[in-house]
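Escalation from tier 1.

The customer reports that the assembly of two entities below gives different structure tokens on two consecutive runs. Tier 1 could not reproduce it. I'm attaching the input and our single run for tier 2 to review.
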Amino acid sequence: MGGEESLAMTGGDGQYSYARNSNPQKEAADRAKAMLIGAVSENLDIVHGSPTSNTFGIADLGCSVGPNTFIAMNNIIEAVEHKYQAQGHLEFQVFFNDRVSNDFNTLFINLPPNRKYFAAAVPGSFYGRLFPKASLNFIFSSFALQWLSKLPQVVCDLNSPSCNKGRILYANAPKEVGEAYSAQYAEDMEKFLGARAQELVSGGLMALLIPGRVNGTLPAQSSLGPRFQPLESCLVDMTNEGLLSKDKLDSFNLPIYSPSSEELEKLIEKTGCFDIARVEEMHRNNIPLLTMQEFRAGLEGIIKTHFGSEILDELFDRYSKKIAGRPPLNTCGGIGIALFVLLKRKH
Amino acid sequence: MGGEESLAMTGGDGQYSYARNSNPQKEAADRAKAMLIGAVSENLDIVHGSPTSNTFGIADLGCSVGPNTFIAMNNIIEAVEHKYQAQGHLEFQVFFNDRVSNDFNTLFINLPPNRKYFAAAVPGSFYGRLFPKASLNFIFSSFALQWLSKLPQVVCDLNSPSCNKGRILYANAPKEVGEAYSAQYAEDMEKFLGARAQELVSGGLMALLIPGRVNGTLPAQSSLGPRFQPLESCLVDMTNEGLLSKDKLDSFNLPIYSPSSEELEKLIEKTGCFDIARVEEMHRNNIPLLTMQEFRAGLEGIIKTHFGSEILDELFDRYSKKIAGRPPLNTCGGIGIALFVLLKRKH
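Tier 1 run:
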């Protein structure tokens, strides 16, 4: 796992934990619920690997510690039960996956007591195999696939012409930077889709919620840009004031990428293993900027690893002041697009 | 789970952690390796639930945090692979089970990097269902089934004639105390075996390592007695010196039980779901008394819950002095018997 380990969400249930600061993710998940139910109802055929097995396996990839994952798993199970009312003897097994450094102890303590499934946790990167062949009926992943397996090397290399100096993401960067991110994303998705193709049963479904950008835009116009701009601005300020070294800033980048739906569909078609049952863009207006607490929950680990923990309080204090009074973001600028993608494993 | 939660082994990898203090368990597991290999070789028929599934599911119930569980899982997989060399396409999935309060984060961090299996963790008491029907091919449990799901009520009730006053276990206690423990054990094993019978495929194996006592002896002659006698003696000393209240001591008991093989076989036959493929008594001489560190790893949680954390350092310091210079225990007194039991799920 190595460098990936700094990417897990902040554990526990303290002030800055993911458990207490994942409202934007929850809102999007709520809005996806209707789509999820429709998806199951229209597309799911329960293909039993065996006439004697009545296990329905579900995985949530990049689940963090809850509560969002519990809500999503419940939605999926309700949808499956609704479609297969007659088959009252189905047993559900849910596999909660996240990186090894995720706080699974907290996840386990928070498991809903009256859940209708057998719970299991699977640690490891979803860019490799996590499950036996054809062992899952449904794969779900919500706002986790924006995390790349690693940064494209060149954007952090101070001696490369593609070094992404003075920025922390490819938004508003020269074309080469966006291309390096795109190439890393393509490589990662090939691994992701290849692994999932093996793990899903024939006819099994995979539902993905992904932050995306509008078709026809370049990566540099990424919808993620405005969300991370205030953080970038704080880091630049601190560098200008001599609190951080210029090299440290220049070599820091976020391993995050948001594709357009066309870009993603091409990558899916390339694998040849999935039918694309549905791709939808979810627009939204008046998205509040991420609060300081929400930012800490998602980014504390990666910032600490690069800059050291001593800058954290100062940085997030500045962040908090920087966003104070700013208006919410709007989708008319290509911001805040989420992609809902439903794939079906070919027979 | 409730009261059971205090029973998990001490987590992390600090001085008193189970990870660093589980040598006696490891020695016994090493000695069981040969038996395990023989057991698989003579008794395992791979009954695929489905012609398309090549997953071989293994569970370790009461796994703690490693490293012993990793060694045991490796032994089982080697034995299965050895028997089924021709079927090189088997994929193994290992489910590590322990109570919700077990330190699964530590378990995950310590997973062997070159393991030949997909790893998953399943939290919860093994006295209830943990897995879907017929989803496992092999169930293993090593030195975990001595933990009862709860204490028999009467032995802690200061007003009951069966109250186990002045002792912390049924060893050397009046007959009624041993009977109350036996009855609780029978109730627990009925639940354990009933759940496992559903989870194992037909023809699947279950290998159990259990601390036992010699056939024909009463519970009061339990082989566990001498192991816990020094701890009991320290608690009695502290009560006599006024450091603990007499009621606290009188109402404290360990939820631990060791059956004879005859007793266990009767309980297994009663369920009607398993063929007993093998029962062996493993004797051993010169068993070192548990060290202070080993004791803390196993019992710190339960002692803290009953007496409060403030007594821990004093108690274990006394324990350390109490056992200093004592000779190791010998099996000729019925001490240190371990039972190796191999069951096969009936078709």
